[in-house]
Amino acid sequence: MRRYLRVFETYDVAELAEVVDEDVLVHGAGNHVQGRRYPESSVLSPGLSNCRLHIDDLFAAGDRVTVAMTMTYRHDRTGRDVTMTGLKSYRVHEGRIVEFWGETDLYGLLRQVGLVPEQIPAF
């Protein structure tokens, strides 16, 4: 699991391929998709660089691992640091991630770079 999380800092998609199954199932943000290209696109987020990932909590039992994390990026356009928290739950088989569920505070990240309003509008 730590190898997978390290990929967000190194951007080493070859290492990602070693620890994430090609047909990984991904659940989150209202999506249910399959394929390694989805976590790979998260690693290679355009406009964000210099990721520093802090593991706030990690718990493993059987074939499941749950991680609470804080990711700090440099926003390339402004040069400012922005943070995003997340909570992910992974299913591992034979040393590879085969499925995961999770949510990240994307709204908070977008708010920090001025792409959404400070206050959530009424709906």
Structural write-up:
There is one protein chain. With 123 residues, the chain is an alpha+beta fold. The chain is 24% helix and 50% strand. The chain has a six-stranded mixed β-sheet with strand order 2-1-6-5-4-3. β1 and β2 form a beta hairpin. The N and C termini lie far apart (38 Å).
Please state the structural category.
Answer: alpha+beta
Strand order of the largest sheet: 2-1-6-5-4-3
Kindly report the average pLDDT value.
94
Outline type: globular
Q: What are the secondary-structure elements, in order, as H or E?
A: HHEEHEEEEH
Number of helices: 4
Catalogue the unreliable spans: none
Helix and strand arrangement:
Elements: H1 2-10, H2 13-19, E1 20-28, E2 31-34, H3 37-43, E3 48-61, E4 64-75, E5 81-93, E6 96-104, H4 106-112
Parallel strand pairs: 1-6
Antiparallel strand pairs: 1-2, 3-4, 4-5, 5-6
Q: Brief overview, please?
A:
The protein is built from four helices and six strands; from the N terminus they run H-H-E-E-H-E-E-E-E-H. The chain is α+β, with helices and mostly antiparallel strands.
